[in-house]
Each structure stands twice: as C-alpha cells, then as structure tokens.
Batch of 4 targets.
Target 1
Amino acid sequence: MRSREVRTVRILCVCVLVLCLIGLGTVVFGKTETSGKEVEQPSSKEMVLNLENDTEGSRIPAGYRENMIRLAIIRDGQTVFAIEKGPSENQEDFMEWYLTEPYETRQLVNVSDLYDFLDHYASWSCLGQVENVDFQESGLVVEETFSDTGTVRLIVGQTDEEGNYYVKADYSGNVYIVEKEQLETMTSLEPKDFMMGIANLVYLTTVKQLQMTTEKTSASFDIETDDNNRQTYTLDGRVLEEASFKELYGKIIEILINGEAEEKEIEMEEPVLSLCFKRNSGSLEDVVIRYFPYDRSHYLIEKNGHAEFLAEKKQVDELIEEIDRFCGK
C-alpha cells in the first residue's frame, strides 16, 4: 500500500498534467467561416456560462453545487446528455467527472469552468413562482443528483403567452416560470463540448508495460515504479533515458479526438497503430487503443473494443513516424 504522501504527489502531478492538456483544447468538430476567416462558435457550455446568474433574483433551489455528482438531460424518456462524478479510470481512490451519455464509453470531462457551469443548475434563476397553472409535461426533464440529498427532477412544461417555460420541481410540486432563452440554453447541451478530447489519456504512473505496434515496429516497454513514484523505463533490457521516453509518451497523449465516427464498423484490415497499456494496479483496467483507416483525413479510434471517435490522420501519422524512429535507434 502506498503512503498518503505518495498518493498526494501523484494527484498533484496528474493535476499539472491535466491543466497542461486542457490547453490543447477539447474536441474539434466544426467551425463557421465568415469572410474567409474561421470563426469559432461558442460551445453549449460557454452559452450556459454566458447566461446571467442573478443571485438576488428568484431561484429554483435544487441543492448545493459542491455536492452535485450528476447532471442529466432527458427527452421523451431517453437520456441525451449526462455527466457524472465517479471513480477515476486513471487513479486509485480518486473521483473525476465523466461524460456517461450518450456514448458507449465514459469520456473524461474537461473540468475547466465546470463548477461555474454547475452553479446555474444547483440553483436555477427564474422569473418567479406561479399558482393555479394547468401544468402539462413536455417530455423534457433535467435530473440533478447530490451526494447529500439525492436526485431531484426539474420537469419542463408548456410555455406561457410570452414564450417562457413552466418548470415543476418534483420534490415540492411548485411551478416556476423560466425565461425562454435560459431554459433552451440549459437543456441544449452538446456532449462534445464537455469532453477532454484526448484519445490516449492513460497516466504514465499507472503503467507497468506499454506495447506499441506499427507496420514497421513492434516494441514492448517495461516500466518499474518504486514507492516514491520514481520510474525506470527499459526496452529489450536496455534502460532508456527518462527525458527521451517521457517526450515520446507526451506525443502519445497529444493525439486529440477530432470528431465522431458516422460509420463505426471496422473493415477487416490491420490497424496502422496499436497501443496496449498494461496497468500496475489490479483496480485499474488495461487499455488497448487501435487506429484503423477511415477516410482521407481521419483514422477510426477503437478503445477496448469500442469505436466511436476519429483522430486526425496527419497527427497519428506523425506519431507513428516518431515511434518508428525512437524504436529504431
């Protein structure tokens, strides 16, 4: 069992890594061109952050933001968006936010501004409470779960004569009026806007062996980690320089998700790149990531048997060249 101090060092290192990676950006799906120049449109997350959050006005209380562990949008009985705080896939005894719907696999959430974002949901701004309304459910529901008080459901109803929405809190039965733009913004969340978007995000401190396969290379790196979190890297019995191996590993985790795959069936052909991360802890799952030809600009990413996302072909090809060069020394 590692000491609390070592775990603290690991968490601090991971936080620094994640902060650096956030600078790489999130998933890149599309931009709008205006007068020949690309103009990035605000994400659905940014649009919520741009809403006025008048703390002095009327509110719909849901819970304490510090205790929020899940947010979901449900349309006609189907969960179209959900983020949830749960056990980390990359650290023991650590909790992280993941996008759990609508994808097959959990995706790590970019937590930049996440807590400011959640403030809008823990206590909704509204125009006020109303009485004697013949409330009619629209099929749209916002579910919020808190670690101390459980799950609340904010049920969206019909609009009034001004186009604003009636919203009923299930825990009290009270009905409120929520301004049209605010309601539609808060319930139109795009999952891609919340993803960290790093295809090969496996923390090096959790890896005991890394196998890499390209058309030209088949290599297996052994990694030993001591109780002080110091690591030794070997290839074919040869001890590698720490700086050079970490530089290579940094290039591996620089690969970004570049969009969602429309066709997710993989044709019977060999992957151009395979990465197998074997973990040094029984509580963490091994990770196998493979890249398959998809179209002229992208490779299909398959992670532990699930293929949902794309990576830019040019970026992956550059990584393959770097792996071949490094292993051919």
Note: The radius of gyration is 23 Å.
Target 2
Amino acid sequence: MKAIIFALFLMPSIGLAKDYQVKMSICDTQSNCKKCHESVELTYRVDSKKKTVTAIGKDTTGNNINEVLDKCSVQDSSNWSCDSASGKIEVTKEQVSFLNRKDGSLGNLGKQICLVK
C-alpha cells in the first residue's frame, strides 16, 4: 500500500504555483472512513503556466516524494484534476475531493482513499 500512495500523488514545478496541503488515509471500504491503516500528507503544487501538478512530501516509510504527476488536467490553479489507478483527485474552486475507483488497485483490496480534514 505504501507504494500505491507513493505512485498515486507526485507533484509539479515552481513558477506561478499554488500549493494544496492534502492529508489522506487508506481505509477499509465499508468503514465510512473510520477504520484506516496508513496516512500521508502531501503538498500538491499546481503550476498553471506549465499546466503541471507536482506531489511533494513523504510516504509512510519516510521516503521523500517530489514528482510531477501524469494524467492531469489543469484549467487554472483553482481548478484541476489528476487520475490514478486508485481514483481521481479533483480541485474545483479550490475545494479538494477524491473519487475512488471501485475497480482500481485499492478497490480490489477492499480499501479506499479518504481525505482527512
């Protein structure tokens, strides 16, 4: 699961960048985000000029993460999204949400990603 979190959310370059601090946990699907196993806090840096999103932080083992994410669509720094094997992180009017894929890598294990407020 650590490798999944690491691969899911890795972020963009600096320029006209806006940062989003996001804490997420891997939780059991049927627990309504109450039974969670691992957490990670990442900064998503959105560069609207370059149309990139970069994930910055540490994975659950303490290894550094600093990678530009693939499969992202950036309209501007307040409206963007990135797809992954487990779901889609989406920001609309600066509000962050995560849509889990039921048939994704975590869904097949009975797990989902939950955002922690």
Note: The first strand starts at residue 17 and ends at 28.
Target 3
Amino acid sequence: MTHVDLGLTIDNVVLVVVGYVVLYAIGTVELRLGSLLFVGLAYLVGWACIGVLLTLALLAGINPGIPTFLVIAGGIVGFSGLYGARRSAPISTSRAQVSRSGVAWLLAALPAVLGATMIAIASLAAISVGVKGQLYAGYLDSFDFWIPKAETIYYAHGIDPGVWATIGHPEYPPLVAVMDALTFHLVGGFHPSVLPFQSTLLGVAFLLSAIALVDRFAPRWISLPSLALLASTPWFWARLQAPLADQMLAYLIAAAALAGVIWLYERNKAALILVFILLAAATLTKLEGALMAGLLALVVATAGIALYRRSALPGLALLAAPAVALPWRLWLHHHALPTSSPDYHATDLLNPDFLSKRWGRLTGSFHALYHGLISAQLQTSVIIWVSVAALVILALRLPVIAGAVTAWFVLSLLGLTVVYWIGRLTLSWYLTTSLSRVGTTVIIVGGTLTPLFLGLALRQRRAE
C-alpha cells in the first residue's frame, strides 16, 4: 500500500466513523451490523460535519491539516458517543413487512433487483473512472479556481488573503477547497489526480444515503428503480467524477430535502438535525448554496408550523443553518475582498430603469426553462415529469408537505432566473453553463424525492 492509498483510506474511514457516531448520537442508527445500510449517509454526514468545522477552523487562523482534522474528528466522536449513550431508544429503522403471494413477490422483486443492479453498475463504473484521475477538460472551473484554492490552502497551511484574491471567484465559500486540501495533506502531496476518486465516493455515498433515508417509507420496487434512473442519467453520471462544487451542492441539498420531508411527516428530532447539518455544509459549498439552503430552511420551518403549530417551533432552528456563512463574509470583509459575486448586484432589483432595459433577459430565461422542460434528454425528461406526477399524487394525500416542496422548486428556479436577469455576463453563458450546473440541482432534488413522495402517498397514516 502506497502513501497515497493509506492517506485516502484514513480520510474516508474517518469520515464514515464520524458520520456513523453522529447518526448514533441523534438516534438514527444503532452501532450494529444491520446499520451498514447507512454507510452512505454516514459518509455524507461525516463529510459535512468535518467540512463545516474544518472551514471554521481555517477562518479562525488554524491550520486545517492532519492534526486539526484528527482533533475535530476525535471531538465529534467523543461528544457524540457520550451523548448517544445517554439518549433514549433510537427511532425505528425497520421496514414495514407486507405479505404477498409468490407472483406478487416476484413482480415486486424484479424492478428492485434491476434497480439495485443498475445503481451498482453505475457506481462501480464511476469509481473505476475516478481511480484513473481524469478531471474532464470540459469542466474548466476545476482548473481555474477550485483546485488552485485547495493548492494554496495546502501549501500555505491556511488561507493567504493575498494569494486568494488572485484566484477566480474569491467570494466563493472554501469548504470544498478545504476538504480537497485535507486530502492532499493525507496523501502526502499536491496530487489533484486523487480528487475525481474522492468526488465519486461522495456521489456514491449520496445515492446510498437516498436509499437509506427512503427505505422506511417506500418499497424498494419503487425506490431502487427511481434512484437508478437518476444514477444512470448521462450528465449525472459524468459529473460524479468531476471535482466541482456544483454536484456536491446538489447532493447536500437533495439529502437535506429528503430529511426535511421526513421531519414534516413524522416530526422526529433526528431528521431535523440532519437537515441542519446538511444545510450548513451546503451554505459553505457555493454562493448558490446559501440561497437554496435558506429557501429550504424557510419552507420546511413554515410547513412544520402550519402542520404542528407550537410543537414544530424547533424547526425554526433551521433558519440559523445558512448563518454559518457569516464568519466567511466577515473574513472577506476584513481582508477587503468581495463578499458577493461581482457578476450581479442585488441592489439592481431596486432600479426600475435597469430592469426594464433587461426585460428580454428575464423572458429569455423563462423561455429557456420552459424549453428545457419539454425538450430535455429522454432520461432527464422522465425524471422531471415522473417527479412532477409524484408531487401531484402526494398533494392529494399530504397537501401541506407537497406545497412546501413546490414552493422550494419555484423559488429556487425564480432565484436563478432573477440572477440571469440582472447578471453582468451574457445570457447565453448563464443558460449554457450556470443553468446546466446549478439548475440541475433542482432536477436532482426532484429525482431523489420521487420515491419518497410515492412511498408516503401509499402509506395509510397521514401527517395532515
């Protein structure tokens, strides 16, 4: 085993252990063999927790290297282990058993096996490509600023404002760069070729997270084929290996949306904590993360109060998750760096003359969204329209939950459209680059929520 192999092993094993202990502390799992179903969710939660705390340590002037990583991981494990040992019994993670005849069992097993096989093939194929270290030249942002940011954090043992200012988009939050720099520390050098493998593991962990989260609510003949469709969609699969923050943001937001709907349905504390962790990490991943995380926190908290009144007040804590970006904004301001994107200014929304002159950009953006819905690649169209149909079905049973999800979809797309309206860059760039990356987050969220929607609609007990 080489130094690189050892470093990657330590990195990923520690993330899984941290995530598992956090899940144990909040009551999602017990530390037993049967909890292996949650290995993907453990990795995603571990990545989010370490990422947020390591980023905050960086902003406090602490070297985000191996010692800091191990101290933070050890602190999380120790605190969570003690807390978990004192908590009440965990929330049941058992699946409802449905008695079926032999023919019915076979008909249900076939799509589940097919879906599981497709997910396994897509995951293994992505990992095999990721191991080769191909960065995909089409994603120039990796070379332009994501990898250089990780490089400067690695070599400077922190964040050098002078160097940071020379790299593109210094206003972008540094969580992804911090985690990449940590990988460089663990493998013993600046080796960007390992990043596609790490990105692939995070993507596979996301797929496994979705399976684990919906498993109690949706039969596998629904959940596995639905997620297999997403995993095998060409653009989703190709981006599994790309070390870009856009895909990582989508994973965090989609997993948070799953946990948020689950909290709205059964109002358990574990799901609420999961939402908070994932939204905090999403906020520090990209600028768009603050928008999408803030909107998701708002609609989940509002729907919770509409459903449960005072007993849902803890949901208001979700509104604090996007506030984790405040230290980053203060750091930027202290070092005279831009705190927002120079590509657009929100104050332009208060200028009627400016907006009227750009009315064509707004209508063009809406037209592009509509055209994308009706002329998307076949698999993408299936994901979109099946998720819309599932949302309509859910609305017949759980209208408040369906309304909250719909509000997030509409507000997120509206937010992107407003940026394209007031943005300084050409509209064609926004529609061909930004929309194809950030906009697909909405599709990933919809595809991930589809099996949960259908599973909740099929259940007898109602939350509303």
Note: The first helix runs from residue 3 to 26.
Target 4
Amino acid sequence: MADALDRAAALVAPGTPAATLVHDLAIRGAHALLADHQHDTHAIERLIRRTTSDDAGYDRDVLADVDRLGWGQP
C-alpha cells in the first residue's frame, strides 16, 4: 500500500497529508466501483431487452440452425 500511496502522492499537491490522500483515493475508488456496477447493470438490462424482445435484431431461425448453416454439421 505504501508503494501505491507514493505513486499517487506524485499526482497531488506537494505536502498533501497521507490521511487526506488515503481519504481522497478511497472516495474515488468507491465512485469507480459504483460506476462499474452501474455500467454492468445497464449492460445486463440491454441484454435482457435484446434477447426477450419480439425483434431482437437477428434471425432467430438462423441462430437456432447456426451449426448446420455455418459448419455443415447436423
């Protein structure tokens, strides 16, 4: 952790107390985690909509027969 703090300290104002740096990094990390989770949630919702809609944007019959059509397999 000390190495990570040293690397991050080079990016902030000189003399920034370690406690302030740890606090700020923790807040930014929490925001990043929440943003990742939100992104994942939106992606899952899009996938659900696409795969359950009447018009999924692809031919379901072709998809059901893709092995035979694409690779000549029964």
Note: The longest helix spans residues 18-52.
